[in-house]
Design a protein that fits this description.
Elements: H1 7-14, H2 22-35, E1 41-45, H3 52-67, E2 72-77, H4 80-94, H5 97-102, E3 123-125, E4 132-137, E5 149-153, H6 159-162, H7 165-179, E6 188-193, H8 201-208, E7 211-213, H9 219-222, E8 228-232, H10 260-269, H11 271-277, E9 295-297, E10 304-312, E11 321-329, E12 334-342, H12 346-359, E13 364-368, H13 373-383, E14 388-392, H14 398-404, H15 406-412, E15 413-416, H16 419-422, H17 424-431, H18 444-457, E16 466-467
Parallel strand pairs: 1-6, 1-8, 2-4, 2-5, 5-6, 7-8, 9-15, 10-13, 12-15, 13-14
Antiparallel strand pairs: 3-4, 10-11, 11-12, 14-16
């Protein structure tokens, strides 16, 4: 009977007060697959205060010891005291009446009885079985202990620790010399973190070992024996909808507790920190191409000589259509006026771009003809009749163009004050764009501002164009 008990059912029996959201149901289903041995190596990242540790480091060890009283589990965290706290929470579950009804064969020492069994804040043994629960702080020792399952929860205390190369190196050294050496052929690993830095333990592991992003439940069955399965819950949905996370772009993970508006306020305080902690997409400030160095303006100057537009249609379903209207003054300074930055289908963005061209008095619009851009340009021209729409083929190397024009873009471009609120996705993708080209998921915003700079700085850069008649 107990072997048929799902992890979600177990969790609500032990903690009836749990507020199970749709993402918790997914989270618990994945944890159950791990508990039953269907997954050997699992990484889960989640924003703060979303129930990460309750599921993975409190309820999960108790559930696993119930399924298999002979399993030896070790919990590790950034400090021994925090790891001990997790251990004590699990022990309180193991000695509860609710637990004994679900898993009567898994019991631990209570009071002084039985005398020959260990029960401390750092170690507890299962009576009459080989199972045990150990806890250890980062850089602590587990000499002589066999570990069947490691659960690593937050190995960095805060951003200061995670941003320290010395602490990151020490953490990696401890992981390879302690965690990995205590494991055997059938051991399992669960790493559950709030991300702080691109070169934290998760970043280092995924750069060295095979890793599969969890996007559908079929991945639970198809993951390789030595492959990591990686599940990332974004606080604000930005990646494409999937079976695992079917939210639409912009939706909060837990609206009732952490609303999208509250999360946007946090994002505005520090975009890079938000991307690490809440989105699971860390970037180091020293590796950014633009950062937050774009200049801003209050109002357009009087000496505007030209209004233009540059548009790049989406290459794939995951890409953004990026269309930017701008104005140029007599000194060649480029003022960003309006933006359409969207993953909506073309039948939606055609009208949005055309209406933007009209309200910004745009005389000429340049649209890349790559990937359906020619048809898009014709559709826009039919609506925006007062704008001369031209399409052209962009044959230049995207990486070389973006990197070589980045300094000029920072020098010439001006964004309207408050643009991080007005176009937060554009702001986010530009200010977190990295110098290492292939480390970036989206190039659309950087590609368009590069195209604008190319067109406005020299006639030599202007491509051959065709006009819509």
């Amino acid at each position: 009977m107990s072997s048929e008990l799902t992890f979600t059912k177990f969790a609500t029996e032990i903690y009836p007060f749990l507020d199970i959201q749709p993402f918790h149901s997914v989270y618990y289903r994945v944890l159950e697959a791990f508990a039953r041995g269907d997954i050997r190596r699992l990484i889960i990242t989640m924003p703060p205060q979303h129930g990460k540790s309750v599921g993975a480091t409190t309820l999960l060890p108790a559930y696993m010891l119930g399924l298999n009283p002979d399993i030896r589990i070790a919990i590790a965290s950034y400090s021994g005291s925090l790891a001990s706290r997790f251990n004590r929470r699990v022990q309180r579950i193991l000695e509860s009446r609710e637990y004994s009804e679900l898993f009567p064969d898994t019991t631990i020492k209570q009071g002084a009885k039985p005398a020959n069994y260990i029960r401390t804040a750092d170690e507890v043994e299962i009576i009459g079985r080989d199972g045990a629960l150990l806890s250890v702080g980062r850089e602590g020792s587990l000499t002589g202990n066999r570990v069947d399952c490691f659960i690593l929860d937050d190995l960095y205390k805060d951003a200061m620790e995670a941003n320290s190369p010395i602490i990151r190196e020490n953490c990696w050294e401890w992981y390879t010399s302690v965690v990995r050496t205590r494991m055997h052929n059938f051991s399992r690993e669960l790493i559950v973190f709030t991300r702080w830095h691109e070169e934290d333990l998760i970043g280092t592991i995924t750069s060295k070992e095979p890793c599969r992003e969890l996007r559908s439940f079929s991945d639970l069955e198809e993951v390789g024996e030595n492959e990591w399965l990686y599940l990332n819950f974004e606080a604000i949905k930005a990646s494409p909808a999937s079976e695992i996370d079917p939210r639409q772009a912009g939706e909060a993970l837990w609206e009732e507790r952490h609303s999208a508006s509250l999360l946007q306020q946090k994002r505005q305080l520090d975009t890079l920190r938000f991307e690490c902690m809440y989105q699971g997409h860390p970037s180091s400030r020293e590796g950014l191409l633009y950062g937050d160095s774009f200049a801003e303006y209050e109002t357009l100057p009087r000496d505007i000589v030209r209004y233009g537009n540059y548009t790049d249609t989406a290459d794939t379903g995951d890409d953004y259509l990026c269309s930017i209207c701008y104005a140029v003054d007599t000194d060649g300074i480029i003022y960003i006026c309006d933006v359409v930055y969207s993953r909506e289908p073309m039948e939606v963005t055609e009208r949005e771009v055309a209406e933007m061209l009209c309200r910004n008095r745009t005389r000429t619009a340049a649209i890349e003809s790559n990937n359906g851009g020619r048809g898009f340009a014709r559709a826009v021209q039919r609506i925006a009749t007062s704008t001369k729409v031209e399409w052209f083929h962009q044959s230049g190397n995207k990486e070389a163009r973006i990197l070589s024009h980045s300094a000029t873009a920072l020098h010439l471009l001006r964004f309207p004050k408050g643009w991080q609120k007005r176009w937060y996705e554009l702001y986010n993708h530009l200010t977190t764009y990295r110098r290492t080209f292939h480390s970036n998921r989206w190039h659309d915003a950087a590609d368009v501002i590069t195209g604008i700079v190319e067109r406005e700085t020299s006639n030599a850069f202007r491509p051959k164009v065709s006009f819509i008649r």
